[in-house]
Specification:
six-stranded mixed beta sheet; 11 helices
Length: 338
């Protein structure tokens, strides 16, 4: 479908599309290198929409794939195992006819299945924390863990810290804020993207769909967060903090302040974007912080790779495994065991 028909069909089916599954996300894909909006698809059952899927074409080194982030989005009820497999089979047939350069599709699935593969690269999550912003602030505080309420209240009492929505001057202040992301990546041992990636996101999505929040002390940034939004949904995409900020509980103040400000904007849910599980043990370090704000953990469909050409996809796995082994060998020579 074209963009307008896709959005209209989703609305008719009472589907609240996540931002990544709307045409509004396309502006970011167009701005980013190696990404192109590919198609908006609707899977029909008995001529009625059953699943909605917006796909982006991604270029890797020597291959291309499609990424349906947070899709497909299903109408009620939740899809069965058989329905998900049938939809994917139809999708493979469609893609093979439309674009023979596509090696695989990355998409989400409620059910595990032997036609799906663990991600070639990147990390997914299938558990997250979602705050219900239809509740008032007293209810949200009451539903926090005791430690969460204590830390938020302690942070609120520190009048030297100021939380603010800096979306209006995001591109002006982000070079300074990026230094906190460098510090965070080095401290927590994760890779970060070039500064331009975050600036492209803020610029391309614009203030309607991408907000920048900070906590400062004497004008110095202690922490910040980038949140994507629709009219009803918010997602905590990126965050960074300094050692000083962590000690002062600035991230707690940031999350609470963002929660209140998003609620005032009419947003109904705030997804803190993933905690650890069997599939994502790498995220164990964030669980303690995120679960301060609610004890309720939500299961969500994780992402999987769905091969379009199975032999070629297996070859990609072999090549990537060999590359990783070579890199590990080089690192081992540089850092011999004591």
């Amino acid at each position: 479908m074209d963009d307008e028909a896709f959005v209209a069909a989703a609305a008719d089916a009472s589907i609240d599309l996540p931002l990544e599954q709307t045409p509004d996300w396309d502006s970011f894909d167009v701005a980013a290198d190696g990404r192109t909006p590919w198609a908006k698809l609707v899977w029909l059952v008995d001529e009625q929409p059953r699943a909605f899927l917006a796909l982006t074409k991604m270029k890797g080194r020597g291959f291309s794939y499609l990424w349906g982030k947070h899709g497909p989005v299903w109408t009620q009820p939740e899809p069965t195992y058989t329905e998900e497999r049938a939809m994917r089979a139809d999708l493979r047939t469609f893609i093979r006819k439309a674009d023979r350069t596509i090696a695989f599709v990355r998409l989400h699935s409620v059910h595990r299945s032997d036609d799906l593969s663990e991600l070639l690269q990147s990390v997914t999550y299938d558990r997250t924390i979602v705050l219900d912003l239809t509740k008032d602030e007293n209810q949200l505080l009451a539903e926090m863990k005791k430690r969460g309420r204590r830390d938020v209240r302690k942070a609120l009492r520190d009048e030297s810290m100021v939380a603010a929505d800096e979306t209006g001057r995001a591109l002006e202040v982000f070079p300074e804020l990026y230094q906190l992301l460098i510090e965070t990546g080095e401290r927590d041992s994760f890779g970060i993207s070039p500064r331009a990636t975050y600036e492209q996101m803020l610029s391309a999505l614009g203030p309607e769909h991408c907000r920048l929040y900070t906590v400062r002390r004497d004008g110095r940034p202690l922490c910040w967060g980038i949140v994507t939004t629709t009219a009803t949904q918010a997602t905590y995409y990126y965050a960074a903090s300094s050692a000083e900020g962590r000690k002062a509980l600035a991230p707690d103040l940031l999350v609470w302040s963002m929660t209140c400000m998003l609620r005032e904007r009419g947003v109904k849910s705030f997804d803190m974007m993933g905690i650890d599980s069997e599939r994502a043990p790498q995220l164990s370090g964030v669980r303690g912080f995120k679960t301060k704000f609610t004890e309720e953990i939500k299961a969500v469909p994780g992402a999987w790779d769905y091969p379009i050409y199975k032999t070629f996809y297996r070859g990609l796995h072999v090549a990537l495994a060999a590359k990783r082994a070579a890199v590990a060998k080089v690192k081992g020579k540089r850092h011999p065991a004591e």
